[in-house]
Amino acid sequence: MEFGLSEEQSMLTDSIRRFADQNVDAEALKSLVDGGEIAKPSLLRGLAELGALGILTPETAGGSGLGLLEACLVQQALGRNAVPVPFTASAILAPLALAETEAAEAWLPRLASGEARVGVGIGEAAGRRSGTGIELLGTKASGSARFVIDGIDADGWILGTVGGGLVLVERDAKGSSCSALTTIDGTRGCAEVTLDAVQATVLLEDGADPSRLARMLAAGRTALAFDTLGACERMLERAVAYALERKQFGRVIGSFQAVKHLCAEMAADLEPCHSLLWYAAYAADAYPDEFELMACHAKAHMGEVGQFIARTSTEVHGGMGFTHEMGLHYFFKRIGVNRQLLGNPDQVRQHAAALQGWRRAG
Question: Which of the ends of the chain has fewer CB neighbours closer than 10 A, N or C?
Answer without folding.
Answer: N
